[in-house]
Each structure stands twice: as structure tokens, then as C-alpha cells.
Amino acid sequence: MTAIADPTGTLSVLIPVYNEQETVNTILTRVLTLGPIVKEIVVVDDGSCDNTAAVVAARAADEPKILFYQSPKNQGKTAAIAAALERASGDIIIIQDADLEYDPAEIPEVIAPILAGVADVVYGSRFLVRKATRVLYFYHYLANIGLTFLCNLLTNRNMTDIETCYKAFRKEVIKPLCLTSKGFGMEVEITAMVCKTKARTYEVPISYYGRSYEEGKHISTWDGVMALWYIGYYNLIKPLFPSYRKYIQDVNSALAAKCETVSPPFPVGHAQ
Fold it and tell me: pTM of the prediction?
């Protein structure tokens, strides 16, 4: 698949928000700082009960690149991303959390393998340690490692961080995917389904400025338990459904239609 020669207006940044009034304005500013590569920032407020929606609405009123949608009630991150995907129109789509755990300044490095024409999907890994990572919860680290290991067993991939926020895709890979999981289940669902396709997947190292629960971290032990269920369900059962077999076929056909043989012009991270 050929490289993208002119990346201007290429990128859609999807930002799900829930009670992030203290940080969402900063995140929007940092994403806009990326410049003309950003086609749009699709923000979905997942039923926040603080001032988040008002903050985003005020920014959207003055910035045409910000597309704002407000969910009438809290439905979880997966539902927010599904709503954002419906509205995204960029050739490359990346997910950005609304807190300050991931720095938008690193987005160009995450999408670089796609722009170079050597990847269709790129994950920003917190465990390919070449950058700053805040020291936090050991049990969360074990959970991330364990979930990634189990997913790798069923996908036969050698990924290091399936739970990362930074997931970037060619639109042909992610737009046709109808998300059906709940809460934070999209991390497993997306990984399992993308790995069933012929999409070329890479990982690149990123920084991670994690939050404590006192600082507003949302994920819980129950989310980890559900992730175990989702790993089995989306790797072993869901691909048997006609709709998901169609997704796999559609993605493979779309990628094959655009595919041309190119050699990687530079080292681009951790190939899958």
C-alpha cells in the first residue's frame, strides 16, 4: 500500500469524554497544535454530570475542526467510540482519551507507519519502554500483561499492550466494525477482530502519564473481569457470526484493492 504523500487533512481524532472538565480543554488545545494534518476532532460526551459538555461546546463553537456530540446518558467508552466512528471521515482514525495520560504530541509518531504505507493499524505501546512512564499500580501492570498474553494466545500475535488508548487505523479497517461490547470492552473487541483480518499491525513506543484513582482514573476491577470474558467471546465465538465474517471479508477486500508492495523507508517500531 502506498505512502500518503500529503497528510494534510488526513486524521480524525476520536475523543470520548466523561467528567473531564479539568483536562478536556487542554487535550483539545494539544490536538489542535498538531496542525493541518488534523481534519477533525470528534468529541463524544458520554453523559457527563460535571461541566465537561459546556467546556467542549464552547470550544466547538469557535473551532470548526471540533465536532461535538452529547450522549443523553452514560453508556461507557465503547458506545462513545462507536458514536464517534459514525461521524469520523478521515483516512486515518486514532483514539485519544480526554485525560492527560497520553500526550497528543506523540500522535505523529503513532501514525507514522500508516503514513509511510507500511501499516494499516498501529498501537502505541506503554511497555516498549523508550519514553517516560509514570510509576503506578503494580496490579494494573500485571492485569495488562495477563490480558495481552491471553489475547496473544488466541490471535497468534506478539503484541505488548492491547489495553493502550492509542490505536490508529486506516479507515478501511475500523469504520466497518460494528462495536458490540460494553464499557472498556472495545480494547479487546477491536484487537480480536482486527487480528482476524490481514491488516498489517505495528506497535510503537509511547509515553504514559497515568493517573491515580484520586486524580480521576475510571477503570475498575470489574472492567478487568469483563475483559477476560471478552477475550474468549471475541476471539472464539463472535467471528462465527455472519456479520463479523462479513467484516473480515470486507476489510481484506478493501486492503487488497489498495495494496501495492513498498519497502519500509525507515524503522517504524514493533511489527506484528
Answer: 0.88
